[in-house]
Specification:
Length: 142
């Protein structure tokens, strides 16, 4: 069993205890801090790729995830769910308010490199310059 498959089992067992939260990838917020509440509805893995599925059709893919923490709640800004490290993180969502079709699928992709974290997106409206921090956790749900 791979680490991603092991983490998928752990997340699945605790799914009902994981509260909705705002997402952050290597220190980069998705939206404004604490402005969104994404609800995790299922989790699976294939080899070293973890897939986390959310209630509005969003998918969080994490390659080679390491060091999972699932907390008791969002107290004092502590994350409900944290994956400390990964090789790559990709967040995909449908443009909010638009039909759930491929043309409206958006992404933010973060890849660990020798120089830090390279970030790309296919969204060109209202997106701040992405400057992920390699010292931050790969994934946090706060």
């Amino acid at each position: 069993m791979s680490e991603a498959e092991r983490l998928a089992e752990l997340i699945t067992r605790q799914l009902s205890a994981i509260e909705p939260g705002t997402l952050r990838f290597w220190g980069e917020w998705f939206g404004r801090p604490y402005d969104n509440a994404h609800r995790l509805v299922s989790c699976d893995a294939q080899a070293d790729l973890l897939h986390m599925h959310f209630n509005e059709g969003e998918v969080l893919s994490v390659w080679a995830p390491r060091d999972l923490h699932i907390g008791p709640g969002k107290l004092h800004g502590q994350p409900m769910l944290r994956i400390r490290d990964a090789e790559r993180v990709r967040w995909e969502w449908f443009s909010y308010g638009r039909p759930h079709v491929a043309a409206n699928r958006c992404f933010r992709d973060f890849v660990k490199t020798a120089d830090g974290i390279a970030a790309t997106t296919n969204v060109d409206e209202h997106v701040p310059k992405l400057t992920p921090a390699p010292v931050a956790a790969a994934v946090e749900m706060l």
